[in-house]
Design a protein that fits this description.
- It contains 14 helices and 13 strands.
- Helix 8 crosses helix 13 and helix 9 packs parallel to helix 11.
- The chain is α/β, with parallel strands linked by helices.
- It is globular and about 55 Å long.
- It starts with 12 loop residues before the first helix and ends in a 7-residue tail after the last helix.
- The protein folds into 2 domains: about 170 residues, DNA primase, catalytic core, N-terminal domain (DNA primase DNAg catalytic core, N-terminal domain, Alpha-Beta Complex), CATH 3.90.980.10; about 150 residues, Dna Topoisomerase Vi A Subunit, Chain: A, domain 2 (3-Layer(aba) Sandwich), CATH 3.40.1360.
- It has a 5-stranded mixed sheet with strand order 10-9-11-12-13. A 4-stranded antiparallel sheet has the order 3-6-7-8, covered by helices on one side. It has a two-stranded antiparallel ribbon with strand order 1-2.
- It holds the Pfam family DNAG_N.
- This is DNA primase DNAG catalytic core N-terminal domain-containing protein.
- One of its GO terms (cellular component) is cytoplasm.
């Protein structure tokens, strides 16, 4: 909550105190000194991520993570001029700006402690906020927002609970990724983005398609929902897939095939090869897709007949293992008799 603007000789209080309004048990609103609340949370460190939390603590950490997701989602719609909205629009991901979107994409505002203040006002203590990886101690000892001015993607564990976040931030015209720290509920190596949002696709034999950029995952989901649910886009956001993440995908996917979109960048191709052993333990077939040079799934989709072109490219797979010994080579193949043009398969728009 915002602090009341004080007048006259009391103006110094603005530099010393931050006020929030909180309901007492009787329902009466009263003023609480936020600085005192901050001080109570300063003495404790984030618990050992390897320690098993109590049931009550686990519930609190999950609840505050879900509350942060709702806050970030609200901020994306509230700030019409934020760069993430433009990023999504220019990337062809307009569906994520629909209030009914399956993806709970959000925006962490460019502010010092708007999330922390919001969570405090809704009843969460500073220790819980900090232990969930949502706040960090500032230079002045106050708890402030960890993520600022970033597009936010919730990450889920094997139970599909929201346990952390990956942020997309921009700098000098490029985008970079940040992530929640390891906590008692979150490990980056044990959480995945995009499974819950496409769970019915994965349950209907869609093959997971691993990409780096969230925009590429959105594009693949889009073409999949218009073509019988063949694929589910899973963004890795700059990280290598871990063995735990491969197991989570394998447990949720009915299909025995996983597809990796291979970049023309040699270093990126080598990283793709590195995850082959873990994927091979979770899926019977590990395939790769080579897109035309200088194209990603998102940029290809935005071309003329882009949905059809992306659909056709995703059909042209070969074993990822081929990249261990062979140079990059485009495959061609005849369209199988059962494959019809995307336009003929298109049904009503998916209910978002």
């Amino acid at each position: 909550m915002g602090c009341p603007w004080l007048q006259g000789s009391n103006h110094r209080l603005l530099d010393q105190r931050s006020w929030v309004l909180k309901k007492s048990p009787s329902g009466e609103r009263r003023t609480v000194d936020h600085i005192e609340a901050w001080k109570k949370g300063l003495g404790s460190r984030i618990p050992d991520p390897n320690a098993v939390p109590t049931a009550a603590r686990l519930r609190q950490l999950l609840e505050v993570s879900h509350a942060a997701t709702r806050f970030y989602r609200r901020e994306l719609f509230r700030d019409k001029k934020s760069w993430p909205r433009n990023y999504l629009e220019r990337g062809g991901a307009l569906a994520q700006l629909d209030t009914e979107s399956r993806w709970l994409v959000g925006y962490a505002p460019d502010s010092r402690s708007r999330l922390v203040d919001h969570l405090r006002a809704t009843g969460f203590d500073l220790t819980t906020i900090r232990n969930a990886g949502l706040g960090v101690l500032g230079a002045d000892g106050r708890l402030v927002d960890r993520f600022r001015d970033q597009l936010m993607l919730p990450a889920r564990d094997h139970r599909l609970q929201i346990v952390g976040f990956t942020g997309v931030r921009r700098s000098s015209g490029a985008v970079y990724y940040t992530t929640s720290p390891d906590t008692q509920i979150h490990r980056r190596s044990g959480s995945v983005i995009g499974i819950a949002e496409q769970l019915e696709l994965l349950a209907g034999e869609a093959s997971p398609v691993l990409v780096d950029d969230p925009l590429d995952a959105f594009a693949i989901e889009n073409v999949s929902r218009l073509s019988g649910g063949r694929w589910a886009g899973i963004p890795l956001c700059g990280a290598l897939l871990s063995a735990d993440q491969a197991r989570i995908l394998g447990a949720r996917a009915v299909a025995d095939t996983v597809v990796v979109v291979v970049s023309e960048n040699e270093a990126a191709r080598q990283r793709a090869i590195e995850i082959l052993p873990d994927l091979a333990k979770a899926f019977r077939r590990v395939q790769a897709v080579d897109l035309p040079r200088a194209f990603s799934p998102a940029t290809l989709r935005m071309r003329h007949d882009g949905l059809q072109r992306l659909h056709d490219e995703l059909l042209l797979t070969r074993p990822l293992a081929d990249y261990r010994s062979r140079p990059r080579r485009r495959r061609t193949r005849e369209r199988p008799a059962g494959d019809v043009p995307l336009e003929m398969e298109r049904g009503p728009s998916p209910e978002l």
